[in-house]
Design brief:
The protein starts with 6 loop residues before the first strand and ends in a 7-residue tail after the last strand. Helix 5 links the parallel strand 5 and strand 6. The chain is built from 8 helices and 7 strands, in the order βαβαβαβαβαβαααβ. With about 260 residues, the chain is an alpha/beta fold. It has 2 domains: about 210 residues, NAD(P)-binding Rossmann-like Domain (Rossmann fold, 3-Layer(aba) Sandwich), CATH 3.40.50; about 35 residues, no CATH class. About 45% of the residues are buried. The structure holds nicotinamide-adenine-dinucleotide. Nicotinamide-adenine-dinucleotide binds next to helix 1, strand 2, helix 4 and helix 6.
Length: about 260
Amino acid sequence: MALNGKTAVITGSNSGIGLGIAWEMAKAGANVVLNSFTDRDEDHAIAEEIAKETGVTARYIKADMSDGEECRALIEKSGVCDILINNAGIQNVDPIEKFPTEKWDAVIAINMSSSFHTTAAALPMMRKAGWGRVINIASAHGLTASPYKSAYVAAKHGVVGMTKVVALETAEEPITANAICPGYVLTPLVEKQIPDTMKEYNMDRETVVRDILLARQPSKEFATVEQLGGVAIFLASDAAAQITGTTISVDGGWTAL
Ligand code: NAD
């Protein structure tokens, strides 16, 4: 299969988009390293299920992406990292004057600085292997803004900028760096925002989904984790060898508006 013999390390992958990408990568033949900050039986069970269903090697490694040393340790413990998918992320929704500083720090650390640390640790491995792919899961909020998401928008714009820098620093090598910018995908991260948004706008769930979440997504449909996995596999393919330093939007037309 397309990615046989490659190893993909996916941060924040016991849920949502990261887990969906891990499944698609494994189905395409890549060994996968899953990650989150917990160390529960169910985390390891996900890796076992992926290995059993697809025949690849799948491991779960606990590492807290809010801690730079743990980010680097994740890559070291993985042993090999051909495809790095920086996906771990959290959200906090508050007007800027009420935005708790500790939430700002956590969003910036997990959504942005973690990618700096993992990429710094992974590039030497990619150079040694003579091939590599850095795929950052940014967001439509890496290209546009929304109110009440100051830390998230800042972090995602930062990720898009860093993606360009990594691409330039590896431009003459068989390594690429790109960012995928999803619009809304119905994952636990989005589910968690719905009650706050209902409260903020005094709306019911259905109205929040249609008029707030998908207001800027002209397709009026959520993107799926399988679609994001497909785009990641494309970016890891030979067809994408000259695609570097750019963003690919999977947002139902959001950024065309
Ligand atoms: P999710 O909450 O389902 O998954 C987030 C993952 O990150 C989980 O596996 C969680 O355990 C992990 N994580 C959180 N804090 C961590 C930490 N400190 N250390 C290690 N792992 C940690 O959310 P999701 O929607 O799947 O989001 C995944 C990525 O996609 C995020 O970067 C998010 O910003 C981005 N994204 C999501 C959407 C969307 O609509 N869902 C849209 C655009 C971008």
